[in-house]
Design brief:
single chain; two-stranded antiparallel sheet; 12 strands; metal-binding; oxidoreductase; amino-acid biosynthesis; branched-chain amino acid biosynthesis; magnesium
Length: 372
């Protein structure tokens, strides 16, 4: 297969971890006979410094001309700490999602058996965790009208959702649940928010078309508690843009490191793959960033294009790095290996599987229905 991939390393550790993903894709190319073309572009703080725009037109056009986007991370303290800043790096990511119509963010949260001790929670609580969060990505409070008064002492952020925005991600989530353990949990705040009440009405109506899937609902505060008390009770979680942002970061704590969790953002025409972690500027250029979340996002990219064997091979190589304890400092307290070494090891161990590898055995089934 031939793929054109836009590479947006972004800020902080983003370029470093994406570089390891490219190594893995080069290995997949060689092992399985594919052809991948990469085109690097600026986004975020790096783009602001170079062009004054967090999403230059050239970057956007490259993404539109590509089959997929590999994204690193975005954000910089120099912009975050300036209350008078008129433009900030995160605007680039929000605009990119909007321009490409990326309406569904898909975030698997799994605990690796070899890393179960990495979680701050007890083994008996986290060991069977295997859930996926479907987070609406194009509407809600992040994109609503924003205002602040002339005295800078009163501000407004408007949360708006339409039935069509809710419906399209709801169908994706139900299809995923149907192919998984047939349970879907809607997370909202319907006891307070009118937008959440619209979510409930819409989701429960659509549920009638998926009788094999059990639907329940939780308020966001209760859901946050339940994810810590008993994360294995969840299969597919469906929620809005802000609640999904919160819950997916909480999921990283369950797994033991935010450097382990991948994600995909998909729409009708485009797809982008990125680790859930931020730019971690304190670790920039120190060769300590964990590349696994980015590499597993690459596995999701391969899966998206129906390259399941290739995706499995990437995951198998990641699991081998865990079993050999070739990990970055955030894992197992190790400080022996850095970002580049871990990336090299994983890329060097991507190979055709002999049939003995069972992805479910290691509880890292990224899900044949995770993306589509």
């Amino acid at each position: 297969m031939q793929l054109n991939i836009a590479v947006l390393g972004g800020d902080g550790i983003g370029p470093e971890v994406v570089a390891q993903s490219i190594k893995c894709l080069r290995s997949v190319e060689e092992t399985f006979g594919h052809s991948f073309t990469f085109r690097k572009e600026l986004v975020g703080a790096a783009a602001i410094k170079a062009t004054g725009d967090p999403l230059p037109e050239r970057t956007l056009q490259t993404c539109k001309d590509s089959d997929a986007i590999l994204f690193g991370a975005i954000g910089s303290p120099e912009f975050d700490s300036d209350p008078k800043a008129k433009v900030w790096p995160e605007q680039g990511l929000l605009r990119l999602r909007k321009e490409l119509g990326l309406f569904a963010n898909i975030r698997p949260v799994k605990v690796f058996p070899t890393l179960v001790k990495q979680s701050p929670l007890a083994k008996k609580i986290v060991q069977h965790t295997d859930l996926v969060i479907y987070r609406e990505l194009s509407g809600g409070i992040y994109y609503g009208h924003k205002s602040i008064n002339e005295d800078n002492n009163s501000a407004t952020d408007t949360c708006t959702y339409t039935e069509s925005e809710i419906s399209r991600i709801t169908h994706l989530a139900f299809k995923a649940a149907k192919a998984r353990r047939k349970k879907l949990t809607l997370v909202d705040k319907a006891n307070v928010l009118e937008t959440s009440r619209l979510w409930r009405r819409t989701v429960y109506t659509i549920a009638e078309s998926y009788p094999e899937v059990t639907l329940d609902s939780l308020f966001i505060d209760n859901a946050a508690v339940q994810m810590i008390l008993n994360p294995s009770q969840f299969d597919v979680i469906l929620t809005d843009i802000m609640f999904g942002d919160i819950l997916s970061d909480q999921g990283s704590v369950i797994a033991g490191s935010i450097g382990l969790l991948p994600s995909a953002s998909v729409g009708a025409d485009y797809a982008m793959f990125e680790p859930i972690h931020g730019s971690y500027p304190d670790a920039k250029d120190k060769n300590i960033a964990n590349p696994v979340a980015s590499i597993l996002s690459t596995a999701m990219l391969l899966q998206h294009f129906k390259m399941q064997e290739e995706s499995d091979a990437v995951v198998a190589a990641v699991l081998k790095s865990f079993s050999k304890k070739i990990v970055t400092p955030d894992i197992m307290g190790s400080s022996k290996y850095g970002t580049n070494y871990v990336g090299d090891f994983i890329a060097d161990n991507i190979m055709e599987l002999d049939g003995s590898f069972k992805i479910n055995d290691e509880n890292i089934d990224l899900g044949k229905s995770t993306i589509i």
